[in-house]
Amino acid sequence: MKTYFISLVVAALIVAMIGILSPEGERGGIAKHLKLLTSLFLICVLISPLKSVAQGLFDLANGNLDWLETDDPEEDYRQQMNDALDASSKSYFTQMLTQTLQTQFSIESGELCCQIQWSDENDELKPTKVTVILSGKAIWVNPEKIESYVTELLGCECVTAIE
Predict the structure, then answer these.
(1) Residues whose CB falls within 8 Å of the CB of residue 90, separated by 6 or more in sequence, listed in order
(2) Closest Cα partner for 99 from 112, 87, 89, 85?
C-alpha cells in the first residue's frame, strides 16, 4: 500500500511538471490535449490496484482460495526441532570423539580438542574432515597415530594441529 501511494505522488509530480513545462499553443489548443492525456494517466495510476482485486474475485469465483491458506506452523516447528537435534547430535558426537581419543592415547582432559566439518547428503549428517588440536603435554603424542586412528574409525580425513 505504501508503494501505491508513493507511485501516486510521483505520478502527480510528473503530471505537474509536464503541465508547467508544456507550451500553451495557439488559443490554448495543446493545453487541452495535454490535460486530457495527463488526466488519463492519473486515472490509470489510480485504478491500477483494481487489477489485483479483479484477479482475486476471479480466483474466488473459480474456487481458488490460495490467498486464504496460511503456512503450516507445525512444519516450521518440525524444522526447528530437526535443526536443534542436528546441532545437539553434532555436539554429542564431537564430545564422544574427544573422550575416545583422550582414553585411547592417555591424554588429559582439556589438552585435546576436536573440530569437525560436516556434510549433509540426503538428509544424513556425515563428518568429512576432523581437525584434532593438541595442547599441553598432548603435543608429544604421535600425530600420525591419531590421524590414522580417526581415519580408520570415521572414514574421513583427519588433520592434527598444535595449539
Answers:
(1) 116, 118, 125
(2) 112
CB atoms < 10 A from the CB of 156, how many? 16
**Which strands sit side by side in the sheet containing 112-121, from one edge to the other?**
112-121, 124-134, 157-162
The number of CA neighbours under 13 Å toward the Cβ of 111 is: 15
How many angstroms separate the most distant Cα atoms in the chain?
A: 104
* Cell (9 digits) for 9: 505522488
Residue recorded with cell 510528473: 14
Q: Is the pTM of this model over 0.70?
A: no
3-state secondary structure of 49: coil
Q: Beta-carbon neighbour count of residue 69 at 10 Å?
A: 7
C-alpha–C-alpha distance, residues 111 and 108, integer Å? 6
Query: Of 18-22, 106-110, 153-157, which range is least confident?
Result: 18-22
Rg, C-alpha atoms of the chain: 35
